[in-house]
Structures are given as structure tokens and as C-alpha cells.
Amino acid sequence: MTSLDSVLDKDGVRLAVDDAVATVTLTNPAKRNAQSPALWRALTEAGRALPGTVRVVVLRGEGKSFSAGLDRQAFTPEGFDGEPSFLDMARGPEADLDATIAAYQEAFTWWRRNDIVSVAAVQGHAIGAGFQLALACDLRIVAEDVQFAMRETGLGLVPDLTGTHPLVHLVGYARALEICATGRFVQAEEAERTGLANLVVPADELDAATRDLAAALLAAPRDAVVETKALLSGAVSRGYEEQRAAERAAQGRRLRDLAGITD
Predict the structure, then answer these.
(1) What angle do CA 154, 155, 159 make, to 5 degrees?
(2) Which is deepest, 20, 91, 96, 204, by most CB within 10 Å?
(3) What pTM was computed for the model?
(4) Is 193:172 a contact under the CB 8 Å cutoff?
(5) Which pairing describes strands 117-122 and 125-127: parallel, antiparallel, or unpaired?
């Protein structure tokens, strides 16, 4: 996606902004965009750096893979340069470990903000943390060669980067459990059929399809999209009557706005 200004470029993450569309790119194709705490901090910073003009955020990975997941160096005794190893963190106080994981999760939470719509453009491998990063977005366009997998359980761990909630709501509890417990690959046809992917396209059409979707998302008035996203995202936790009331309140706000009525 064409961009005008690079707002951030550090630790394997680049944020570029072109008017109402921001593009966040994972920029370490040599390591299949493997993830690290530094990358997560850069993703968190990218979310905080978004200009107020941005309405759509595209997430993509350079190279053949979207993201192969957590860099295995995290589990070595030496860990990453300047970072405590995961093994050392596990030996520390439980409250400190919880706070550290919560900070990591911040890289995965801002994609669902009501004021933006996030789109993951996913090709090749999206494994573990890579799968969870794609799940963090509102929408997913995938290439025909996509391979999702949640491998944490096979390593004796659990998915802890906010991916379990959207996965269950997209594919259901039973399939989510089977995907996580077996660590198997979910490929393009199944991803589209089960709701993990909104659209499957040939790899060489991924960028164009993403641009088309971004343009379609920008066609409606911003406030209407923001209200609709909040209405739909909240429907998961509301009962039927609560959702009816939320619809009425949201529509009332939109009608008053269109009529130029201020509270």
C-alpha cells in the first residue's frame, strides 16, 4: 500500500500514514517476521502514534510469511540482548510476570479500538503470536498460501496474547480447542469457511484486495462506522433487549448529529 510519511520505523515495525489509511508493516522477512518484546513495544508505540485522521489501519508482513510467531531466542538462557529471558522472568515474583505479560498484550489490544477499522493482510505462515496478531485485527484478507497455527500448547504454554477470545467467537469453542490443542495448520479454504478470513485471494492480489477493502471502508461517514463498530463489538456481551436499547441509543445519536442538534 502506498504511503506518504513514515511515522515510526524501529525494532521490526514500520508505521506509515497516507491520509486516512495507516499501514503497519512487520519488517524482518529474513526471520519470517518473528516476534520479540522489542517488536511488541514498537507495535504498542505505533498504536499510540496514529494521527487522528486515520480511519483504517492495515497490518502486513514483508516477505513470504506474515509472522512465524515468537522468536525462539526468548526461551534460551541468554534471551534477547538487553532483555530478561523468559526463563528468568518465570523465576521472579508472580505479580511481576503478570505485569510483564499484560504489557506484551498491549501490542495486540489497540487494533479493536472503535475509532479505527483494522485489516490484517496475511500471507504464508501466521503461527502462534503471528496468528494472534492477525486475530487482533477486525478483518483478515488472506492469500491462498496462508497457514494459520496455534503452536503454544505443543510447547507446554498457552496462547496469551489476546488470541483466545476472538478465536472462540469466530470459529466456536470446539473448533478453537481442537486448533489450539493439536497445533495443526488452518489453511485458506477452512479459514474462509469458518470465518477466520473475510476473503481469500491469490498471493499476487493481496495488496490490491487490501487497498480495495480499505477504500470501501472509507466510503461511509466516519461517525456512522464508529457507532456501528461499537454496536457490533458490544453485541457479544449484551442480551437481546440490551442490544435493542443500544441500537436505539446509537441511532438517536446519529439522527441528532445529522439534524445538527447538539446536547
Answers:
(1) 85
(2) 20
(3) 0.93
(4) no
(5) unpaired
